[in-house]
Amino acid sequence: MSNETDRGLSGGHNxxxxxxxxxxxxYYQMVLIRxxxxxxxxxxxxxxxGGFCHLYIGQEAxxxxxxxxxxxxxxxxxxxxxxxxxxxxxxxxxxxMAELTGREGGYSHGKGxxxxxxxxxxxxxxxxGIVGAQVSLGIGLAFANKYxxxxxxxxxxxxxxxxxxxxxxxxxxxxxxxxLPCLFVLENNRYGMxxxxxxASASKELWRNGEPWGIPGxxxxxxxxxxxxxxxxxxxxxxxxxxGPVLLEVDTYxxxxxSMSDPAKYRQRSEVDxxxxxxxxxxxxxxxxxxxxxxESELKSMDDKVKAVVLDAAEFAQTSPEPDxxxxxxxxxxxx
Length: 336
What we know:
This protein has helices at residues 20-45, 60-67, 83-88, 93-100, 133-147, 166-177, 197-200, 225-240, 269-279, 281-291, 296-319, and strands spanning 4-5, 75-77, 154-159, 182-188, 191-192, 195-196, 217-221, 246-251.
């Protein structure tokens, strides 16, 4: 997968390389997301998670690479495939998992579930179940940043399945018109529910979809955390400088179905196996660290640490009490 760019952005080629410490942090965060999602899938299969549950397995390099270029105060908003963004933003795995199981200790006190949890402390604004709806909310967050006179950026994630929604193009127009500090991240995992992007989109270069409004576009391999971070560094700097929005398309792949109820019969098992074998983002970083001389035992120690965190989160999610019925009447109106 090649990096492509338009309108003066280099596609990340000129950005600094990741240090060994950076790669270790990326490895830990990606493994945390992967193991967390695997355990969430297990809990769903046991009937402990109800409703919808969309897993991020395979796409970890996208959010981890971008998050490494953000700072305190930057806003994050995404769709229903949101657990990875939450963990990368620093939200407590206990609170995220407990929300999945509908418990009092969850971020939305057990009332939101997988698709609807938020953290004002971590500037994470959801989790949204309506396809493309978060894009227009994302430019609202960017407008707030500009209105307040900060250099904070709004990172707005959406998938290729939402890329041709009318509200997305309306958001492009407003973001460009007001030069809003919004980084649009288009996670192209090839399939919008069960439909291939090749069958659903007349535009084949989605990173160019902002061109009518003069929005610079970038295209990067989303299975390579170093490439994602490099592209994010340039895009975020563009937004912080007050030069307006950027559209970053990241080519990625989800190993599981659209949601836990999707058997994914619209693609061949061999396709999934080929991506896992040759393009897995965690394996790529693991190989890089070993080539740099990091001991296998150190990586094993990191794996064990992640395992302990996820086991603790799963236990908490099963032992935290269910919300009191009185919670039905909270978080409805703002009380002075």
